Amino acid sequence: ETGVTQSPTHLIKTRGQQVTLRCSSQSGHNTVSWYQQALGQGPQFIFQYYREEENGRGNFPPRFSGLQFPNYSSELNVNALELDDSALYLCASSSQLARADTQYFGPGTRLTVL
Amino acid sequence: GDSVTQMEGPVTLSEEAFLTINCTYTATGYPSLFWYVQYPGEGLQLLLKATKADDKGSNKGFEATYRKETTSFHLEKGSVQVSDSAVYFCALVNDYKLSFGAGTTVTVRA
Predict the structure, then answer these.
(1) pLDDT tens digits along B9-55
(2) Helix, coil or strand: residue B94
(3) Chain A neighbors of B34, CB-CB under 8 A
């Protein structure tokens, strides 16, 4: 069974640029959630996708957007990057809507905005 | 809204010492509760979970009991090892999202 994978591992961008992060969910999982973890803090929920539709969203501006594909993999897109977007971005997958189910995390993508 | 409050760190212990990390939560309804662990440079790994009141989650010698009356989910381990050095996050899931505490850094010295 393949776990959650993310790419790239590290990324360096400059302010104002756009970035796309990718996530492959664990085999058999149809729900993907994205989290932002700033240095020294707990992860913050960005949004969740279920069956290719956004299912819920945290307190993040519209320049954070996402997609889920028929194979349940997902992308996180961030436009007009700001310095505060520097963080570890974590993807998590689960087998159903996450009310009671467990989310399994990938290793994350470290984004640095200069 | 939902929130999780964890005992502040860092915590430094000697090998074979007893570890407790306090966690309390505020939530509507009946959330499931989790402890995740993050080793240096890695993502989050599920350590244990509990889905209803009085449930005890356990894994790798760690335990936590879902206490609805005190809205707590404290993590304990009776004898820590150097390999337990990591950041520990308490979390709850309600509706569709996980809400995390700020994390507690634990360092175990040989």
Answers:
(1) 899 999 999 999 999 999 988 899 999 999 988 889 999 999 999 99
(2) strand
(3) 102
